[in-house]
Specification:
Helices cover 27% and strands 19% of the residues. With 274 residues, the chain is α/β, with parallel strands linked by helices. Bound molecules: zinc ion (ZN) (2 copies).
Length: 274
């Protein structure tokens, strides 16, 4: 790990909560400097899964957070919302540590096995997440080929009976969200955020508002617009995003509808507007 990277971690860790936080009795999350990691399953249950893995070099902290909640019960699998480095960075280390499979949508597999590369980040989009990412951006692409397999194509998520995944392309080609219909819990990855993606690091304060996907990594804006509409149509009760704090309650729907119907104004970068 290089010095600048290490220093950045140490600075940030002073402000970081090292404990997992419970959202529901079988849903918890661990907030890292760059992205959220979710733990799905009751602490007493033998089967539970981890969703997303933050940036690289984070496995020790994630394992510590997991042990606080689950003791020595390891997850049965890792599910990835998409293959961007801030969600898959520690996936290899964790899969190896626990000896468990990693699942991602079929359309993301090539990007996490060094067969394809995402479009480069849009350099005109500066701001908070981007400035963190420029420090954390890995020098080598991740290659999960030893552990990764495609999710079933029917929307089922291995090991999670109550959950389904829904395709939400745009931010990346095979981006998914995870949804549990019985109580309306939605894990959104980067299809929707509750943290303003272009804000500065110092605004990592609890502003709960619904935002579109981070502009600098979003590849297909038409698809991203459709995915926001799809998410709004689900009418989720809980919004658990890849970046930002969890949201609950009626303001979710107001804000999702607002975002869906004003997507071009609110979300499209200026140079993509007609
Ligand atoms: Zn992303
Ligand atoms: Zn992200």
């Amino acid at each position: 790990m290089d010095k600048e990277f290490d220093q950045h971690y140490n600075d940030e860790l002073h402000t970081e909560n090292a404990d997992p936080e419970e959202i529901l009795d079988d849903v918890a999350y661990y907030r890292t400097i760059a992205a959220n990691v979710y733990m799905l399953g009751h602490p007493d249950s033998d089967t539970w899964v981890l969703v997303d893995t933050a940036v690289g070099h984070y496995s020790t902290r994630i394992i510590a957070a997991v042990e606080k909640r689950f003791g020595d019960k390891k997850p049965s699998a890792i599910i990835l919302t998409h293959g961007h480095f801030d969600h898959v960075g520690s996936a290899n280390d964790l899969a190896k540590h626990w000896n468990i499979p990693i699942y991602i949508h079929e359309k993301e597999i090539d990007y996490v096995t060094e067969k394809a590369q995402y479009q480069p980040a849009d350099p005109t989009m500066g701001g908070g997440l981007m400035s963190i990412f420029s420090i954390l951006f890995p020098k080598k692409p991740v290659n999960l080929k030893e552990w990764v397999q495609p999710l079933p194509s029917n929307g089922e998520i291995p090991l999670l009976k109550d959950w389904r995944y829904i395709e939400t392309p745009g931010h990346s080609p095979g981006h998914i969200v995870l949804y549990r219909e019985k109580d309306g819990v939605l894990i959104t990855g980067d299809a929707i955020l509750t943290e303003k993606p272009q804000s500065t690091i110092s605004t990592f304060i609890p502003i709960k508002n619904v935002y579109g996907p981070p502009a600098y990594f979003t590849e297909d804006w038409d698809a991203a617009r459709n995915s926001v509409k799809k998410i709004a149509a689900l009418k989720p009760n809980y919004l658990l995003t890849g970046h930002g704090l969890p949201m609950e309650g009626p303001e979710i729907q107001e804000q999702l509808d607002h975002l869906a119907s004003n997507f071009d104004n609110l979300v499209l970068p200026d140079h993509k507007k007609n």
